[in-house]
Amino acid sequence: MMVIEGRAYYEGELQHLCLGVEGGVIKEIGKTLKGDERHDFGDMILLPGGIDVHVHFREPGLTHKEDFHTGTESAAVGGITSVLDMPNTLPPGDTADALLKKRERVSGKANVDFGLFAGVQSSGGLRDLEGYCHAFKVYMAESFGQPGIPADELPRLLQALKASARRLTVHAEDPARFRAVEEHGLRDHWSARPDQAEEAAIRRLAARENGQVHVAHLSSRLGLAALEGTRLSSEATPMHLLLTLDAPLGALGKVNPPLRTRVDTEAIWRAFSSGRIDVLASDHAPHTLEEKEEFSTAPPGAPNVETTYALMFRMVKRGKLSLKTLVSALCSRPAELFGLGSKGGIRVGGDADIVVFNPREVVKVRSEDLHYKCGWTPFEGWEAIFPKATFLRGVLVARERELERARKGRWLPFGEPQVP
Ligand code: DOR
Ligand code: ZN
Known about the structure:
This protein has helices at about 70-75, 95-105, 125-130, 155-160, 185-190, 195-205, 220-225, 240, 260-275, 310-315, 325-335, and strands at about 1-10, 15-20, 25-30, 35-50, 50-55, 80-85, 115-120, 135-140, 165-170, 215, 235, 280, 355, 365, 385, 385-390, 395-400, 400-405. By secondary structure, the chain is α/β, with parallel strands linked by helices.
């Protein structure tokens, strides 16, 4: 048996414990355990591996931006041990054949466990795709080349979803509320895709949903208000939690939905830190610096998978966020919502996906230390606490901010979502 020792987040609190691992699974948890291989982390903190249910690793077809190796390398180093990858690729992951090919193509490159979203644009064919994906994704408005679903098709899609066991993640912006604006900066982008578009989209969803719908990247106070009292699950990203349209980022801060005002960012933070937003996800959406040169033509999106856990663990140490909320939003809740039963917590019988943090090691985020193919981050210069080590099913896959063992990632087993 292999033993990992440290201050583990177990049953809702930090306790000095030994985790006994066999066959990639936590077999035993105790104050003292014997083992033939030991990793003693002293008083460092052991947390469950992060589950990022929103990444764009760009395979196939857009691998000049990122590929499955660099994307999952960044994930492993950043403490993310499971990812669900988005379908807006070339060709898109929207048929059984495309999803099968994608799975084959990326399996040998995955450095963390992975699953796939199937893109859907109509109500037909959900059942045919179900066996090839972990969840569905729909865009209500155009974004980075993805057309939005026709407005009158959405109710039919939500109806068809009831016959499926999978969850549907929605990019919730209603294009009927968009404005024709010439875009030279972040404020223009925000005017072009205003918060009323998010609010209207969420109201349309709430009218028809049945507990299977997940709202991606919540970005506005109005959007939050529209969510209240509904059965929609929701997601926040580090960018919409920490940055506003006044950030000096130019096109690097151009994302959909847009960065908004301080009032919005603070409202999203308050909702997130008080546990009212289910999930923290990176929306890792890399583009090259060259593509981001000219604001008006720059594609929306920014890379985030490697810094998400690190920035938020820093917020825990600053007393701005509870460890309980962080672990819930990045580990246990995504596992429940997306049916990843063996993941999401430190417990006997669960996968030994363990991330080790030394809370004393505060560093500045620097692009050159990250592993993205695109070579930049919207969080340059921000304080963060990166993992010392990441274990994936008991294998030490990253250490001291470098990949230690490549290609250990596997296709995530399917399970039934558990949605209260
Ligand atoms: O900012 C974004 N980037 N929003 C999206 O909807 C798409 C994504 C991407 O794939 O680049
Ligand atoms: Zn996205």
